[in-house]
TrEMBL record:
GO terms for molecular function: DNA binding. It comes from Paramuribaculum intestinale. Pfam families: HTH_17 (PF12728). The keyword ATP-binding does not apply. InterPro entries: DNA-bd_dom_put_sf, HTH_17. Keywords: DNA-binding. This is DNA-binding protein. The keyword DNA-binding applies. Residues 43-89 form the Helix-turn-helix domain.
Amino acid sequence: MKEIYDKEHDVIRKFLSMGRRNIEMLEEIALEYKPFLMGKRFMTDAQLSERLGVSRRTLQDFRDRGIIPFYRLDGKILYEEKDIEEYLSSIYIPKY
């Protein structure tokens, strides 16, 4: 005779636990996801400011001085992640 499983059975508990963990991982991925446009990833002014730990005014100064490239789309400022990575690499000072 076949065994009947209820929600208290070990196999079912493990299965449900794995499902919860998968849902949590998917929620984390969804929070980290940034849409692609033309195969490129972009950040807003606020996102870059937070990530670099500088003020948005500092980013404005960088734009005014031509230090970092950016896109202006109907008043919205966007930075391509690759451009920011290249800029950070160019100012990197290795340890002695």
